[in-house]
Amino acid sequence: MMVVELRKLFRRPRTWVTIGLLCLLPAIVAVFLATTRIAPAPGEGAAFLSAVLESGSLYPAAALALVLPIFLPVAVAVVAGDTVAGESGAGTLRYLLVRPVSRTKLLLAKLVSIVAFVVATVAAVAGTSYVVGVTLFGAGDPVAVVNAIPQISGPGGGGSSSGGSGGGSASTPSAGGSASAADPAAPAPAAPGAPTAGAGADNGAPALDPTQARERAADSVASLSGDPLSPMDLALRLLGAMAYITVSMLGVGAIALFLSTVTASSLGATLGALAALISSQVLVTLDAAASVTPYLPTRYWLAWIDFFRDPIFLRDIRSGLFVQAAYVVILMLAAWANFTTKDVAQ
Amino acid sequence: MTDLGQRSDGERRDGAPRGSTAGTGVRTPSEPVPVQRARPLPGPPVDTPLVIETRGLTKRYGTRAAVDDVDLHVARGDRYGFLGPNGSGKTTMVRMLLGLVFATRGEIRVLGHEVPREVHQVLPRIGAMVEGPAAYGHLSGRTNLDLLDASGPGPRAGRRRRVGEAMERVGLGGVDRRPVRTYSLGMRQRLGLAGALLSKPDLLILDEPTNGLDPHGIREIRELLVELNTEGTTVFLSSHLLAEIEALCTRVGVVDRGRLVLEEPLDAVRRPTGRVVVRTPDADRAAAALGSALVDRTPDGALIVTPADGTGAAGLARHLVGAGVRLDALEPETVSLEDVVVRITGPGSDRT
How many interchain CB pairs under 8 A, A with B? Predict the structure, then answer.
């Protein structure tokens, strides 16, 4: 059944058009950047964009940052919202069920096909943007990569640490920091990156304890300067970020899949999932909603940037994985309970 | 073919005590268990095992009963016509038989298994078309069937052959690779039927299978269904088309506003009335000669006559000829299915 669902997904022109469009946006941005050489100021615009001029091999990260807030979740909501409702509306659902396909298996197969879609999309965006980035900006030497990376700690800190408070939870970067602080030469080689990094952290993370922000920015600079990123290391971090982004999309997918079992209209399911996401985005930025913020599906979306810190800052990544897993489990159970007892009367 | 319904029944009843009463010794698994019925079944053939049997089947949507207390009996080998006006609950009934819609009340047994509890054991033996065909429009008919076959429990081996045979059977053998969205309604209908035939089913449940077909197509499908039926497939066909049921079916169930109002062999429905239809150019003279034996005159000039006891059509002919009446035709009157249906059912729910 999984294979059938995957065949259906990837034989559908819409799937490829969607993936193509998602790859197109970063390519367009890259062309503008390459022709004008005007990069956004560090800490403004999408993460990593300010850095890509120095190294095209960072462009996959910038591309993911471009598609993550809107385009990727919209695509996932469209595909996931269509899974059950689309089959129901087209009438093919009843023929699947009398084949017979068990309703539970069908739901699981649909979830797998959503995951496959996200993986394919993220991989396609990263792959095409790597090619585009290296072609337009050059691969960049390792030093440039090293210098470029700390610049993103500003938006990264703002996105993923606005709720951070406990000193204990910040122990991971601190530990890394104290280890690398032993290097006396630490601040010096990082000079090109250091000022912007500090400024970015302050601008982009108003809710963050300034001491902590500076400490973290300094940490990353210090350790990076002591230990330059090899292309291999960069690739691994990028893979980690891609995996995390894939997982981040599963919450959206699960919401849309659940709604898809509730309504017969795939458009309704898609819009419902997007409405949930937008509400979540609004609440995340609302201080008054701080009590629910940690449980919102979009709360830890930007934590993937933490893969590019040194050492990798795992606290928010872990929280993000946990939140997404909870959404998937709860919504899949709800979808199952609804779908297995539902009259298929379309 | 063995009596699968009864055999499965036994299996099921054996299976339960094996697990649950292992220590109690109430009944050993090998002990034969009598097949019991809750109440005597009206109407169905006693000696033939039932392929579909429902008892008190009811489906309510809010306060409206789409299907209301239906006792349906389809015997093995039947070509059963399920007839009713639009909106009378035919499709809901079909969906319940297939486990797509859950009944509010009542029992369903299909091929000896309880539906919906054991529906996954029966569905592989059923081919179904529910309310029109459906396929993925961007794929070819063959790919659609291939996906459908791959979704089911059948083995991968022989899939191409199964798909090819099913396409061949419904007359789509020569179709090219164009996508289904370019198919005509008739072709889609054939494709849907091919999907139903993929698994070589023991029971075909078809909801309005000839929608959108031209007269040639309708005849082809009818011949195909008769052929499948003689090969041992029981056919359950729902339709609002009298002619279709009359031409194809051996038994007929008539449903009206959710209730089953008639369930009989078609021959019993279309029995002669005992009256005679007389066609003559001398209608008035004949009427005078017949006197009180004349029951009715039809708009097209024919006379409906009740012949005197014992004489029948032959005696009537002699009497009329003796009275100087010229005769064009003299035939026993039969009740048409249409007459019966119109008499016992109300107008369809699409009329307000």
Answer: 75
Q: Which of B269, B299, B317 delimits the end of a domain?
A: B269
Is A91 near chain B, with CB under 8 Å? yes
Band of pLDDT at residue B140, cut at 50, 70 and 90: very high
Residue A46 domain-assigned?
Answer: yes
Residue B308 belongs to a domain with what CATH number?
Answer: 3.30.70
Residue B234 lies in a domain: yes
Taking only residues 4 to 23 of chain A, the set having a beta carbon closer than 8 angstroms to any beta carbon of chain B reads 4, 7-8, 11-13
Mutate to test the interface with A, among B117, B151, B159, B207 (most CBs of A within 10 A): B151
- B136/A100 Cβ within 8 A: no
Residue B206 counted as domain residue: yes
In a domain, B346, yes or no: no
End-to-end CA distance of chain A: 22
**Complex ipTM:** 0.78
pLDDT class of B344 with cuts at 50, 70, 90 = confident
- Count Cβ neighbours within 10 Å for each residue of A224-256 and write b for 16 or more, e otherwise: bbbeebeeeebeebbebbbebbbbbbbbbbbbb
Under the banding of pLDDT at 50, 70 and 90, the label for residue B340 is: confident
Kindly state whether residues B158 and B259 are assigned to the same domain. Answer: yes
Statement to judge: residues B321 and B173 lie in one domain: no
Residue B41 lies in a domain: no
Chain B contact probe: residue of A98, A102, A339 with most B CBs at under 10 A: A98
pLDDT in tens, A211-238: 444 444 434 433 333 355 677 888 888 8
- Answer whether residue A97 shows pLDDT above 90: yes
Say whether B148 and A98 touch across the interface (CB within 8 A). no
Q: Note which residues in 71-90 of chain A have CB less than 8 A from chain B.
A: 90
Residue A345 lies in a domain: no
- Between positions 137 and 156 of B, the ones with CB within 8 A of A are 137-139, 143, 147-148, 150-153
Q: Token pair for residue A172?
A: 């991971």
Interface contact A92-B99, CB threshold 8 A: no
Residue B67's region, left for phi above 0, alpha for psi from -120 to 50, else beta, is beta
pTM here is: 0.78
Q: Which helix (H) or strand (E) holds B253?
A: strand B251-256
Q: Do residues B255 and B91 lie in contact, with contact meaning Cβ atoms separated by under 8 Å? A: no
Total structural domains within chain A: 1
Determine the structural domain holding residue B17 and report its residue range: 1-36
B260 and B282 share one domain: no
Looking at the domain assignment, is residue A44 inside a domain?
yes
Separation in Å, CA of B111 to nearest CA in chain A? 15
Burial class (CB in 10 A: 0-12, 13-18, 19+), B203: buried
- Give domain status of residue A16, yes or no: yes
